[in-house]
Amino acid sequence: MPRVEGMISMSTFPLFAVASLALVLVPGPNHLYIAARGIAQGRAAGVASAFGVETGTLVHIAAAAAGLSYVIARSATLFNVIKWAGVAYLVCLGVRALTGGQETAARKVVPQPLRAIFLEGVVVNLLNPKVILFFLAFLPQFVRPEAGAVPLQIAVLGGTLLLLGLISDLIYAAGAGALGDRLRGRSRALNRVSGVVYLGLGVVTALTGRSV
Fold first, then answer.
1. How far is it, in rounded angstroms, from Cα 53 to Cα 139?
2. With b meaning 16 or more CB within 10 Å and e meaning fewer, what string describes 111-136?
3. How confident is residue 6, by pLDDT bands cut at 50, 70 and 90?
4. Both ends of the chain: CA-CA distance in Å?
5. Which of 90, 121, 174, 182 has a CA positioned 20 to 30 A from the CA of residue 28?
6. What SS3 state is found at 11?
7. What single DSSP character describes residue 26?
8. pLDDT class for 107, splitting at 50, 70, 90?
9. CA gap 83, 77 in Å, rounded
10. Rg value, the chain, Cα
């Protein structure tokens, strides 16, 4: 099959695209997080969290291209530091959402700024050990060292995954935002949903192993 020097084989790229599409179509932690944000605060919040999550993916792509993902995944200490930092962050978000819901009867809740939601999405994805393992165990299967420029191949493959993931995320954000609009006025219930999702994601992150 023809290929450009330093780039991916034309037979490899379509296979990766199909595999990536199958992965992003299956609801996962990112989708749950984005849906929780969209339900709790509307479509704009869901979209902001989606862009935040995929900005985090961009950082993971750069780390994988530089070989940092491999180092982190192979180091039990570094991997566990990132994993438990992610667990602590998600648990804090969950507790904040659950306790914040108790205050809604006394005062009007001030919406979280979209910039803060965006940054929250970045942090959630950066501290997700499953993403690190994905870039170590899945993506390298489609890299062909004999084609040259491995970092460039990782960037192209990762960028493809990011684009597909962003489209999927935005669909979830729009759907969750629409659902949130229908439930608007039930702030306590919405906060409880968000809190349970965050705590659930914390448990999933805590159970993530290092084996690849």
1. 18
2. eeebeebbbbbbbbbbbbbbbbbbbb
3. very low
4. 30
5. 182
6. coil
7. S
8. very low
9. 10
10. 19
